[in-house]
Every structure is written in structure tokens, then in C-alpha cells.
Design brief:
2 domains; about 150 residues; Alpha-Beta Plaits; about 25% strand; disordered C terminus; 5 strands; single chain; about 50% helix
Length: about 150
């Protein structure tokens, strides 16, 4: 009788531990994050300063009490290097800022990057970049900044 009670209690304990492990694993997969790089042109104390007109697509994000201006977000190293040269040629100072993004945003970003890599018309850059910036804003709730 005593052996049966110990066996039942052991089984229940193992079941609880197994369930706890599986549920924690599920949360880990649900919270997958990927690194991407934002091209930041500045951080301003007022929205008016951050929203100065420019011909480059941009978004303005209020973070840590500052209005930060991003002009591009990419993860592919070749595209990042291309964009650094692009901004340098236009005399636009940028610095790369790593962001952690969710799986959905990352997947969509890689699809846009495939389009970017196959560009034959430089004018399409703005359209792709505008789409990425819009996607970033739409999924902002699923993003966490990691400086």
C-alpha cells in the first residue's frame, strides 16, 4: 500500500514537472525575437524638430522621452552595407541601432529584402522602404528596443 502511494505521488509530481516544462517551452517559442538594424538619423526633444521635411521616407518614434527618427530597417548585411553607402552619398548621417523584433515582422522584412536584392530600378527603393516603415509602425507593439 505504501509503495502504491509513493508511486502515485511520484507520477503526479512528474506530470506536474512535465506540464510546467512544456508550457514554458511554448512561451519561449511564442516570444521568439530576431535582431534587425534601424538606421537612426537623430533623437530630438520635440516632435517639430524631428519632423523636419526630407525626401527620405522616415518614421518618428517616441522612446525614452525623445523623438527618434528612423529612415530604414534591415537585417541583411549586404543591404545594410548598400544602405550605408546610399545614405553616405546623400550626406545623411545615420547610425545603426539594433532592435529586437518578433517573428512575424522578421519574416515580412525578409520578404521585402528579397525584393530589394532584385531591384533594377533605384526609384523602387523608396516604395519598399516606405512599406517597411509602415510595417514597423503596425507591428510596433510586438517590438522591443535593445540598444
Amino acid at each position: 500500500m505504501k509503495k502504491n502511494i509513493i508511486l502515485v505521488l511520484s507520477s503526479i509530481t512528474l506530470g506536474i514537472l512535465f506540464t510546467f516544462f512544456v508550457l514554458n517551452k511554448k512561451d519561449i517559442y511564442a516570444k521568439e525575437e530576431y535582431n534587425v538594424y534601424a538606421f537612426q538619423t537623430g533623437a530630438y526633444s520635440s516632435y517639430d524638430n524631428a519632423s523636419m521635411p526630407s525626401d527620405i521616407p522616415k518614421i518618428i518614434i517616441n522612446e525614452d522621452g525623445l523623438y527618434k527618427v528612423y529612415v530604414a530597417i534591415y537585417q541583411d548585411k549586404d543591404i545594410i552595407n548598400t544602405m550605408l553607402k546610399y545614405f553616405n552619398n546623400k550626406n545623411i548621417n545615420v547610425y545603426l541601432k539594433m532592435l529586437k523584433v518578433n517573428k512575424d515582422f522578421y519574416y515580412k522584412l525578409t520578404q521585402y529584402e528579397e525584393l530589394f536584392l532584385n531591384l533594377e530600378d533605384d526609384n523602387l527603393y523608396k516604395q519598399i522602404n516606405e512599406s517597411i516603415m509602415k510595417l514597423y509602425l503596425e507591428s510596433k507593439n510586438g517590438l522591443n528596443e535593445n540598444s
